[in-house]
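With this grant's support, we have settled on a layout for protein records. A representative record follows, to show the layout.
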Amino acid sequence: MTTSDLFALLERLRDWRNLLDMALVAAVIYGLLRLFRGTQAVQVLRGLVFIGVVMAILNQIQQLTAFRWLLTTVTPFLAVAIPVIFQPELRRALERVGRSAPLLMRRVDNANIQHIINEVVKAVDQMAQKHQGALIVFEGSTGLSEISDRGVAVDATISNELILTIFFPNTALHDGATIIRGDRVLAASCVLPLTQREALDTQMGTRHRAALGMTEQTDALVIVVSEETGAISAVRNGRMVRVDPHRLRTILTEFYLPK
């Protein structure tokens, strides 16, 4: 870049519309990285952005006629190939954009929230002590009707006794996920999508893989009780953490009453 080119660039930056144009491009790139955060596509997206910047710079060199022809020819194919390759990640990103305020979607009376949390924590703690496996899904702003419709309809008020009964060993409803919407148990014995990750702990069972798969596709909160160890895990946004009853109470409070 010559000195005259540099002065020409600085002259263009004095126009507020050019500055707005650059800010909008930066905001779009930042927004895409934020939307894909937590997915396997984020590293590829960063690479594509870097390659795109390099190609744009090289495209400004007038002498590279063959390279400019190649860039013009390949770009339409990339516009079609990228959405096909990253279809799961694009779907998840669009779901994030379409989510509204979680509390409005749940429609839970604030006075009843503490009772719900107490009943769930009490049931989970008892199941953990007895090594009684469980998989509980709390619906967020992403609707789970497709999954709940394939399960067994319950539509009952949340209670410690009901949760313990559903997950009692060898009963008809224990082998599957229970979905909670707001302050009611929506359905039981539901089948969840399994995560497609390969680099996972080999000791993770089907419940844990199902919890990861559900939270990778939705904004649901999933609680897992291990049948083998009695450990309690909380899963959200594709991330799993081991918790105790006190930490579980905090997580449920943040879920129902987000700051």
